[in-house]
Design goal:
The complex is a heterodimer of chains A (296) and B (384). Chain A has 13 helices and two strands. With 296 residues, chain A is an all-alpha fold. Chain A has a single domain, classed as MetI-like (MetI-like fold), CATH 1.10.3720. Chain A has a two-stranded antiparallel ribbon with strand order 1-2. In chain A, α3 (75-106) crosses α11, α7 packs across α9 and α8 (192-200) crosses α9. The radius of gyration of chain A is 26 Å and the shape is flat. In chain B, α3 crosses α4 and α3 packs parallel to α5 (153-165). Chain B is elongated, with a radius of gyration of 25 Å. With 384 residues, chain B is an alpha+beta fold. The chains are: A mainly alpha (296), B alpha+beta (384).
């Protein structure tokens, strides 16, 4: 018996193409991510639950040994990552907010020029910039040299390189533009009349800032924090060039395990611990800042 | 212009305590551009006062100076007898309803309305009571938790009003508050605003470019042009007796007929029009000028068959109907008077049922109007 399905209109070719367009547009990006993110991530995960060495070959044993080792042996380095990355993030907010505020509200016709200056360092290699900081903060460098000898307010033995201060300073410097730009975007969107309205309703300049400008800039603070904290916590270049063995961050350990010791399982396990740690931190941070405020 | 000065002196005679806002010789320059040019203004306690004018006439700048958002280049601004010229906005007992409302997008309706009271440090319990009360006044009870993004334009307008009024300011400044609303809602809000103003008894200073809006709501209107006001008065006197060409043209439609004063006849001045017909106007309106424009509103003119007697005292001109458009409440005619001047006439469609009964294009008619319905403005300068 023939089933009569009724005259359900068949979608025409145009509609089919129309429906496919979003997927077609996404396809290159998705293909790229599958090839260069999903597959390597899976590979890394497999390494992290394997045992063995590069010479003898890795055996997929599905043991959590690497994770246990990672968590127990590298507490200090995880702590350093959290502390240095966190401190650098807070510092970029403190330094970046006034800069972004000035560009957004007082920049006038110099706005684009100042924005260009913010991103100008990107025209130089990350590595070169960090090495310059090593020279800048060096014991007899352009900063400490005069302070020690010409002005003489610091003892001759005072040193910055190799200390956490130097690492945090380097991280703050290197990631500052990633804070300023989203902050600027958020501040620039604020209608000046809202600030006038606040002042009209008896808020002082500071009151208007605290009650209106700051809350409306929070999405920028959030976006900037994410953009700074995640790479800063995973960074190894600053700790490598400006720090000492005592200031090593988890990024240094991962780099060392992967490239020097060829200990893929532990390196992969550490990467995953770092990734999930940051994900958890971001989730808590989003809750703390209030997701409603971020979207509303 | 002499009458303007006379009017100004009469304004000054009102008691000082009745004056809520006083502007003395206020000037505001932006670079070389003069936005407000030596404005003297007195707004009385409890009145609905409008600053009316085209964009760029200085009305918003005047309002912003009263609110404290702009500092005058020179001059004095007094609020209830106190010099506030240099006070920041938050130290002035005025509140503003901003164009496009400027509601705080991150705060609920309740917190938007409560904002001023919180800054003043009132107790939470009192704030809650007053916010509820205020939301009832603007007919938005139950909207406390909604964010500005979740309410309509008309509702946002009411929240903006509530947010300003709850502080019980001496003066409420409104900067084209209905500009963003559609026509129907706007008409509704005009009535509503007037009701609220009468209910709370606060002085409103209202900025608009919409003459009908200003006429509907205001007790008095200052018609502004090029940084100063051309005429100040109640809607009726502005409409019936405009004193400048600008006011005559900006408020409603006017027919302006160039004329020369040729003599006086009792309380009236005889004016010879360009087509040699003579009309009479109240003599006091001519202010001694020889060459003037006689003005007459389109709805004051009656059309009749040529030579048909309508009593003796009216001004009379003859002409030919050139265009007739049926608008509903009235019919608009363009009549070409003898000599070529085109005159607009509105005739109420009172006794007419169909289009057939309209005056036909090409018909010769007489235009008549009462001399007392005329007004007089300065003659056009050559080239205008």
């Amino acid at each position: 018996m023939a089933t009569v399905t009724g005259a359900a209109p068949q979608p025409g070719l145009r509609q089919l193409i129309g429906r496919a367009v979003p997927y077609l547009l996404l396809a290159p990006g998705i293909a790229w991510l599958i090839l260069f993110y999903a597959i390597p991530s899976l590979q890394m995960f497999l390494y992290s639950v394997s045992t063995g060495s590069l010479e003898e070959g890795f055996v997929l044993s599905f043991t959590p040994d690497a994770y246990v080792k990672g968590i127990t042996q590298f507490r200090t380095q995880f702590g350093n990552s959290l502390l240095y990355g966190g401190t650098a993030t807070v510092l970029t907010i403190i330094i970046g907010f006034p800069v972004a505020y000035t560009i957004a509200f007082r920049g006038g016709r110099y706005r684009n020029l100042i924005l260009f200056m913010v991103i100008a360092p990107f025209f130089t290699s990350f590595l070169i910039r960090t090495i310059s900081w090593k020279i800048l903060l060096g014991d007899e460098g352009p900063l400490l040299g005069p302070l020690k000898h010409t002005i003489g307010i610091l003892p001759g033995t005072f040193t910055l390189t190799g200390t956490p201060v130097a690492v945090v300073a380097g991280l703050t410097y290197n990631f500052l533009p990633f804070m300023i730009l989203p902050l600027y975007v958020a501040l620039e969107k604020i209608d000046v009349r809202l600030i006038e309205a606040a002042q009209d309703l008896y808020a002082t300049r500071w009151g208007a800032f605290r009650r209106v400008t700051l809350p409306l800039a929070l999405p920028g603070v959030f976006a900037g924090s994410i953009l700074v904290a995640i790479p800063a916590m995973g960074d190894f270049v600053n700790a490598e060039l400006l720090g000492s063995p005592q200031t090593r961050m988890i990024g240094n350990v991962i780099q060392n395990r992967f490239l020097i010791q060829n200990d893929y399982p532990v390196a992969a396990a550490l990467s995953f611990i770092l990734m999930f740690g940051i994900l958890a931190a971001v989730t808590i941070y989003a809750r703390f800042l209030g997701t409603e405020r971020l979207t509303g | 212009m002499t009458v303007l000065a006379l009017d100004g002196r009469m304004e000054n005679q009102i008691r000082v305590s009745d004056v809520d806002v006083r502007l003395v010789q206020v000037v505001k320059k932006f670079g070389d551009a003069v936005a407000v040019d030596h404005v003297d203004l007195e707004v009385r306690d409890g009145e609905f006062f409008s600053l009316l004018g085209p964009s760029g006439c200085g009305k918003t700048t005047t309002l912003r100076m009263i609110g404290g958002f702009e500092e005058p280049t020179s001059g004095l601004i007094e609020l209830q007898g106190q010099d506030v010229t240099w006070l920041p906005p938050y130290k002035r007992n005025v509140n503003t309803v901003f164009q496009s409302y400027a509601l705080f997008p991150h705060l609920s309706t309740f917190e938007n309305v409560a904002f001023g009271l919180r800054r003043k440090g009132l107790k939470s319990s009192e704030i809650a009571g007053r916010v509820t009360e205020m939301l009832e006044l603007v007919e938005l009870p139950g909207f406390e938790k909604r964010k500005p993004g979740q309410i309509s334009g008309g509702q946002a307008q009411r929240v903006a009003l509530a947010r300003a009024l709850i502080n019980r300011p001496a003066v409420l400044l409104l900067d084209e508050p209905l500009g963003a609303l559609d026509l129907k809602l706007r008409k509704q809000m005009q009535v509503e605003l007037k009701r609220i103003q009468q209910e709370v008894g606060i002085t409103f200073i209202y900025v608009t470019h919409d003459q009908e809006e200003a006429m509907t709501m205001s007790d008095r209107i200052a018609v502004m042009n090029n940084g100063r006001y051309e005429q100040l008065g109640d809607p009726e006197s502005l409409y019936e007796r405009p004193e400048t060409r600008f006011v005559a043209g900006f408020l409603g439609v006017s027919n302006l007929l160039p004329a020369t004063i040729v003599g006086t006849d009792g309380g009236y001045a005889a004016c010879r029009l360009a087509n040699d017909q003579t009309v009479r106007v109240p003599a006091a309106l001519t202010r001694g000028a020889q060459r003037v424009d006689v003005g007459i509103r389109p709805e004051k003119i009656r059309l009749s068959a040529p030579g048909e007697s309508t009593g003796g005292q009216e001004n009379r001109m003859s002409g030919t109907i050139r265009d007739a458009s049926y608008i509903g409440v009235s019919t608009q005619y363009i009549v070409e008077a003898r000599g070529g001047t085109r005159v607009t006439v509105y005739e109420q469609n009172v006794e007419r049922a169909t289009r057939d009964e309209l005056w036909q294009v090409g018909t010769d008619v007489d235009l008549t109007w009462l001399p007392d319905h005329s007004f007089v403005v300065e003659a056009a300068k050559p080239g205008e």
